Amino acid sequence: MAFLVNLRLTISHLAVAVSRLLNSRHFQIFATLMRSRGMSEAALRLGISKAAVSKTLRLMERETGVALFTLAHGRLEPTAAARRLLPRAEQAAKHLEWALDEAYALDQGSVRTVIVAAHAPPLIAILPSAIQRFKESHPDVNVHLRVEGPPKVLESVAHHEVDLGVTNPPAPNTASSVDLCERHTISEDLLVAALHRRHPLVAKSVVRPEDLVGATVIALPDESPTSILVRATLQEAGVSIPKTIFASTSMGVCALVQQDVGIGLINPMLLSTGIFPDVVTRPFRPRIELWTEIYYSSIRPLSPEARALATYIEEAASALRGHAPLGKPAPD
C-alpha cells in the first residue's frame, strides 16, 4: 500500500515538473512538426530556426521520458506515442492562437500596423481603393505596402514578414512557399497582348503566337508564373521568340510598351486604371488564365485589422470584376 502511495506521489511530482517546463508553445512546435515533412519545413512554417525545433523536441522527450520520433532512412518518423499526443498538442496550440488574438486586441494603445506585399497588377488596380476604405474605418492603424514579384510575395507571407500577400499563384510543379499559406482566389483574368496604339498588330482582333515571330517581346523574369505559362504556350505552338527584352515587373513591361519598344504579354488588370494612355490590348489566344489570390500565414492567426483589410481587398477585386474587360472578346 505504501508503495502505491509513493508511486502516485512520484507521478504527481513528475506531472507538476512537466507542466512547469512545457507550455503551449512547445506543443505548437510539436504539432507543426507532426504536420510537416521535416524539421526544416516546420521551422519555416513557424518562422523560427531549425535548431529551435530540435531543442523543443529534445525537451519534450526528456520531460515526458518517451521517444516521440525515430530516424528512418534519414527522415524523422513519429512514434505511436507521438501520434497519441498529437490531438492534445493541437488543442494546446489552438488555445495559444486564441490567447495571441486576445493579446493583440488588448494592446489598443500602441501603434498597430498591417503589412501587405503585392505585385504590380493588384497593386495598381485593387489595393488603392481597399486601403482607402481601410484607413477610413481604421484611422489609427498604419499600412505598410511592399512591391514584390510573385515568388517573393509568397516567401514573405510564409516567413511571417508580412500579414497579407496579393499575387498570382505559382505555376504547377514549381517550388514555392504556397503550401505554407492559406489562399483565396479574388480575381480571374485572361492574359492579353499589350501594344502601343501605333503598333501594326493593333489591326488584329486577336494576337496569336505566330504573330509574335519577328517582333520584340518584353518578357517578365523567368521565374514569374506568367512567364512560365507563356513559355509553355509558345513551345507548344512551335514558336521561338529570339528578340526579347526583360523587365523585372509588369509595370516595367507597360512602361516600355508605352514607348513603343515592343509587345508585352500581361495581366489586363494592370491597365484598368488607364495609367498608360498609349497602351492598348488585344486578346491573346490560346487562352492563358491568370488568377490573383490573397495569401496569409497558415500558422499565425490574422489580427482583426489584417482580417478587415483582407475583406476590403476581396471586395475591391469583386468590384473590379464588374467592369467591362479590356479588349473585345474573341473566339478560341
From TrEMBL:
It comes from Pigmentiphaga kullae. Belongs to the LysR transcriptional regulatory family. Keywords: DNA-binding, Transcription, Transcription regulation. It comes from the Bacteria. It holds the Pfam family LysR_substrate. GO terms for biological process: positive regulation of gene expression. InterPro entries: LysR_HTH_N, LysR_subst-bd, WH-like_DNA-bd_sf, WH_DNA-bd_sf. GO terms for molecular function: DNA-binding transcription factor activity; sequence-specific DNA binding. This is DNA-binding transcriptional LysR family regulator. PANTHER family: TRANSCRIPTIONAL ACTIVATOR PROTEIN LYSR (PTHR30427:SF1). Residues 22-79 form the HTH lysR-type domain.
